[in-house]
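Page 47, continued from p. 46.
Same chain as before, 70 aa.
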Amino acid sequence: MSDLLIVVATLTAKPGLEDAVRLALVSLIEPTRAEADCVQYDLHESRETPGVFVFYEKWTSKEALDQHLN
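Result:
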């Protein structure tokens, strides 16, 4: 069994800001994946409701996630 910390984060853009939010979120992917304790960091967007985004993340520990958030 894995001791990885899994995070599923859902964000919803305000109407009219979907493109701006998408660009901002996409810009986070590369630097976050480069963090030593990031195992997985994937962004998804709803096909049914554009502007609803979900990050699926795996971290080596809660401390690693805390460090990322700081």
